[in-house]
Design goal:
- By secondary structure, the chain is mainly beta.
- It folds into 3 domains: about 120 residues, Immunoglobulins (Immunoglobulin-like), CATH 2.60.40; about 180 residues, Lipocalin; about 230 residues, Jelly Rolls, CATH 2.60.120.200.
- Strands 25, 27, 28, 29, 30, 33, 38, 39, 40 and 42 form a 10-stranded mixed beta sheet that branches. An 8-stranded antiparallel beta barrel has the order 12-15-16-19-20-22-23-24.
- The radius of gyration is 30 Å and the shape is elongated.
- It starts with a strand and ends with a strand.
Length: about 550
């Protein structure tokens, strides 16, 4: 498309500052002081033609400023993205506010001796970059607001790492690590969307802002902190949020490829940058990062995690412990009660995403996600839902949670209260793997299937062990038939000791195994929860299947 050029010829306002400096009787010669004159601005709106008078929707505009006697130019594009310095006068900018918007673009031309001339003009640009799904999750939808909080119970809710990955390998905050500082976890981050799909932001932090240890004295008039510090710093007010495609270059499986900038404000933690890349987002959790140049010149990525669940300290999201007897002289040492609605607790659960290697080795048909459509806690119940839908090259979606490196244990009585999905091809599982799987692989790590169910064999419960010599279809297990496993909750249980592993449903034992030193069941294991579709055990999928859920009321471990 042809780009049209506009020549702006407006009056120039000249700001003059002429200083006279003397030292005793000697005059100081600083050379001729010249004010920039004849300041003009050309701009090309990319994709502009007779059919698209305000551009092709990308929002890109190329600017060229010129002036006599100018040394450098500074742009303010009027969209909250701050100032851009251009010694040549040339600058490319992308306007990202959705729809047709008018921006007051100001150019300041600086000359010798501190003299400057400025000009402002309105530029009308159309942008159709509108990540509405992200906007809706961030705000709750049109004409709605949503409040976010630091996800303090989760490891690495604040972290630092290189910019070419999303791994906070340099530093990762432990749960509630910053609680003693006093102000960070009190912040409330409010995002609002109006009826035109525009988003605004308000930070409520009681007048105290958390600062990274960087030089702020010259910029903000505050003393330079030698460590992370809370200062009295006002961040009140409602600020515009603009969205743009991410330019970090990391792959789509690590990022949403979307960034947002907050005009004149920050997401709680002052890092000298208000441009945030959204790595992942759901209805209840968001993971962002901001690129920061340190005083040393090093470029780092700061990672931040927020949630809609307000945790002000303690173990709101952690597995509970206590002195609760099990009736057989054991003590409740850990429990996941799924008490907090929203995403499963990040302090306990991670996700396996994708299809794995050939359906994690079982020729399964689903793509595992962390979307709320596939996994959510509602009214004290964890729901993992398999859905028939085209997604990332698969025809089904579901979710798979694991407690690897977050909750691992050896021996005990494990009780899971659950009910299962129905439909041919559904394959729910509540199971465990040896924590050394990365070192020795499967089946050498051992596998304990607390309970599995096959939709093609409704109401038959499987309890199985897999280990060298007894793996895959040759697992060591047994079955029991019970009614209504998809409509009623039952307690599925193992009793795991150094000498035996027993499998039970509502207290009725249906399989036992003699544990010994020659099998891998005498080490730490972690939990897994998932609903697979099809595969070598799930079998043929009913073509009329639409969706169905596994529901878990609680998981309790006694020792």
């Amino acid at each position: 498309m042809k780009n049209l050029k506009h020549k702006l010829k407006y009056g120039i306002s000249i700001l003059l500052f002429i200083g006279f400096i003397s030292c005793q009787d000697e005059d100081q010669d600083f050379g001729e002081i010249l004010a920039p004159t004849n300041l003009s601005i050309d701009y090309d709106i990319i994709g502009q033609d007779s059919s698209n008078p305000n551009g092709d929707g990308t929002g890109f505009v190329n600017f060229i400023a010129s002036a006599d006697n100018a040394i450098t130019f500074q742009y303010n594009f009027g969209d909250g993205t701050g100032n851009t310095v251009s010694p040549s006068g040339n600058s490319a900018h992308r306007f990202t506010q959705n729809g047709l918007n008018t921006y007051p673009v100001t150019v300041i031309a600086s000359g010798r001796g501190g003299i400057s001339s400025s000009k402002t003009t309105n530029v009308e640009v159309y942008s159709d970059f509108n990540p509405i799904e992200i906007k809706n999750m961030l705000t709750g939808g049109e004409s709605s607001s949503k409040t976010w909080y630091w996800n303090a119970p989760v490891p690495a809710h604040l972290g630092v790492g290189p910019i070419d990955t999303v791994d906070p390998s340099y530093y990762a905050a432990s749960p509630f690590e910053k609680e003693d500082v006093g102000c960070l976890y009190e912040d409330e981050l409010i995002f609002t969307q109006d009826e035109n799909e525009n988003v605004t932001f308000e930070l409520l932090n009681l007048g105290n802002t958390y600062f990274h240890r960087l030089e702020v004295e010259g910029e903000l008039g505050l003393p330079n902190p030698s460590e992370d510090t809370c200062y009295e710093y006002d961040t009140s007010g409602i600020n515009t949020v603009s969205f743009s495609p991410s330019i970090s270059g990391i792959s789509e499986d690590l990022s949403t490829q979307t960034s947002f900038a907050i005009q004149d404000n920050i997401l709680s933690y002052f890092l000298g940058n208000n441009d945030y890349e959204i790595l992942s987002i759901s209805e209840t959790e968001i993971h962002v990062r901001v690129i920061q140049t340190e005083p040393s010149g090093a470029t780092l990525a700061w990672y931040q995690k927020f949630t809609t669940n307000n945790s002000e300290g303690g173990d709101d999201c952690n597995g509970e412990t206590g002195e609760v007897g099990s009736g057989d002289n054991l003590t409740l040492v850990w429990a996941e009660e799924f008490d907090i609605d929203g995403a499963p607790c990040g302090d306990i659960w991670d996700y396996d995403i994708g299809t794995g290697d050939n359906g994690w080795g079982n020729q399964e048909a689903q793509y595992y996600t962390d979307r709320t459509e596939n996994v959510v806690v509602e009214n004290g119940i964890l729901k993992i839902t398999a859905i028939a839908e085209a997604y990332e090259g698969s025809n089904y979606t579901s979710s798979r949670l694991k407690s690897k490196e977050k909750f691992e244990f050896k021996y005990g009585r494990v009780v899971v209260r659950a009910k299962f999905p129905e439909g041919g091809g559904t394959w729910p599982a509540i199971w465990m793997l040896g924590s050394n799987i990365d070192e020795v692989g499967w089946p050498d790590c051992g596998e304990i299937d607390i309970v599995e169910h096959i939709g093609n064999n409704q109401n038959t419960i499987h309890g199985t062990l897999h280990y060298p010599g007894n793996s895959g279809g040759n697992g060591n297990g047994n079955t029991i038939s019970i009614p209504n496993v998809s409509t009623e909750f039952y307690n599925y249980e193992i009793q795991w000791t150094e000498s035996s592993i027993n499998f039970l449903v509502d207290g009725e034992q249906y399989h036992t195994f003699s544990n010994n030193a020659n099998v891998p069941f005498n080490q730490d294991f972690f939990l897994l929860l998932n609903v697979a579709m099809g595969g070598t055990f799930g079998g043929n999928i009913d073509p009329s299947f639409e969706q169905s859920s596994m529901e878990i009321d609680y998981i309790r471990v006694y020792q």
